[in-house]
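Re: the 201-residue chain
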Amino acid sequence: MEKTLDYYNTNSTKLNERYESADVNEVQRLLLRSFLKNSKILEIGCGSGRDASFMTKNDFDVIAIDGSKNMIEEAKKIHPELFEKLYHKTLPNDLTFNKTFDGVYSIATLMHLSKIDLAKTISKIYDLLDQNGKFLMSVSLFRNDIDKNGFDDKGRFFLVLSFEEWINLVENIGFKILETKTNDDGLGRCGIQWLTLVAQK
């Protein structure tokens, strides 16, 4: 995870510009469908602040975290309305709050964790949710740009699991799967497929 964060810290300006231009209409429509208006929402891995800003403008009470300090600072510049809603926290150990949430979502983040840290993180997400709270996760399901150890040419790590393994991992924590969908890459990259799922505590 450390090398992955180094990449995001070093390239935060360029990456944030890229993320702001991604086609995420489908995922954002799913976010609106999955959570009730005015509910308390936590975003894990907010990157440029794109989705946190979208949710805030659609009447959700959002706070967002990212493991890269530089990404957080860049996000504050792009989306000043999020200035007091963005926090630097790393997974899984920093995922602690003095309150619970109606919903948690994480888009293109959790696949950067090892399988052990992923299980710890999803377990902590479960504990952070109120009863019947919902969890939305979008992760890369298939990639043709990584080596046999899961690293791309930029040094970022990607955990590759099958559809069934992702589902089993979430269900084993105690979640009930409500919806799943797969789709092509929002940045138009060939050879990358995404899995998005919605689960309930």
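The CA atoms of residues 112 and 158 lie 5 Å apart.
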